[in-house]
Amino acid sequence: MRFLLIVLLISAAFGQTVRQTQSSNTTENLRGASVVSEQVAWASGSHGTYLRTMDGGHTWNVAQVPSAATLDFRGVVAFSAEEAFLMSSGPGEQSRIYHTSDGGQHWQMQFTGSNPKTFFDSIAFWDSQHGVVLGDPVPDQSGQLKFQLLVTSDGQTWTPIASSQMPAAAEGEGAFAASNSCIAILPDHILGDQIPGNQRSGAAAVGKAEERAGVKTKDGAASPGSNIWFATGGKVARVFHSADRGLSWEVFPTPIVHGADSAGIFSIAFRDANHGVIAGGDYKHPDWDGPNLAFTNDGGKSWSLSQIYPQSYYSAVTYDRGAAAHAAAGLEDSRAQVRLFLVAPKFIFDFRPPRDPTRISPPKKSGIGFNAVSTLPGGGAFFVGPKGSIATIP
Where are the domains of the chain? Predict the structure, then answer.
């Protein structure tokens, strides 16, 4: 069963409407979203708030992490109805990582920022034990600014990647915690989606074995699951890439708008090790045209601007998981077409290149908006935003 539409949306291209069915039961600003299955999803937001549905969106349970009312949970990654990780963003001790294994009955605080300049931006996981968190640059012992990266290999303890392994950040360069999507990896569920069903279990087992042994395949090449990309903004708009889970890095310029501290790349996504997308703009001027959208077919080394017009500020972008799975399985029908979702404050683009995007907007004066997106396993996505906005597109 698809997630029900939680807000009234209007498709400008086709004139379709779907009626409002239910409220999210909160007015908090939601910036984190994580779909587990067609039935289970989590969301997170301001004032220590998290939400969970276990019936495909018919009902949402809203709760607050104890003693976390001052925290802004910008990221959530869930693995079941019981297990989820939350990441809060803020200076110093306000940047934290929490974990639950019992559906929120108990929360364990796994990490708290000790440097007053710490500011977490995004959290992602390959599987429930292997994850990575990105934070804004802080000075290392030599005074150079380096992005903070934390990794876990047991789902419990978090270890900083040595600053000596990180390239220096440019003066005035940072990341954006707008939608928990300024870092990108190829997690197990995506790699599994890209393998035909009769080969999936064996290939997944091989992938996990590769991870335990390191990050290399038998022929010495990097495994697709070894990649980390993250995107930046401010004075520059760049993409950092590691093919070995943070042991070594390379940095590439992009043509996305930058210069102001409110401009740059806000979101990055990859559908495989070569094909990716970056999106952003200037959040203080959301209606300004681009260049705000670009694509790569060489793993992030070079980026080509999208020709769609007009553009605007995009806080999040993601590939449709269902389309990627059908393409990887060798299907040639419309289900295998590349599909993207672009999130803007007042609308969503359902984008199937090379066709023009379909713009989907809430009614005027509704107060409904959008910040972040998470995709459904069978295709489609759900979106969260200000004032408890939650919506889906099948």
Answer: 9-393
How far apart CA 166 and CA 232 sit, in angstroms, is: 14
Task: Dump pLDDT digits (tens) for 144-158.
Answer: 999 999 999 999 999
Tens of pLDDT, residue by residue over 287-340, are 999 899 999 999 999 999 999 999 999 999 999 998 766 555 555 555 558 999
Cα angle 161, 248, 77 (rounded to 5 degrees) comes to: 50
The H-assigned helical ranges of the chain are 188-193, 197-213, 321-328
Residue 169, classed as helix, strand or coil, is coil
Q: Quote the CATH superfamily of domain 9-393.
A: YVTN repeat-like/Quinoprotein amine dehydrogenase (2.130.10.10)
- Angle subtended at Cα 281 by Cα 173 and Cα 291, rounded to the nearest 5 degrees: 105
Cβ contact 31:180 at 8 Å: yes
Q: Is 19 exposed, middle or buried (0-12, 13-18, 19+ CB in 10 A)?
A: exposed
Torsion of CA 192, 194, 197, 198, to 10 degrees: -90
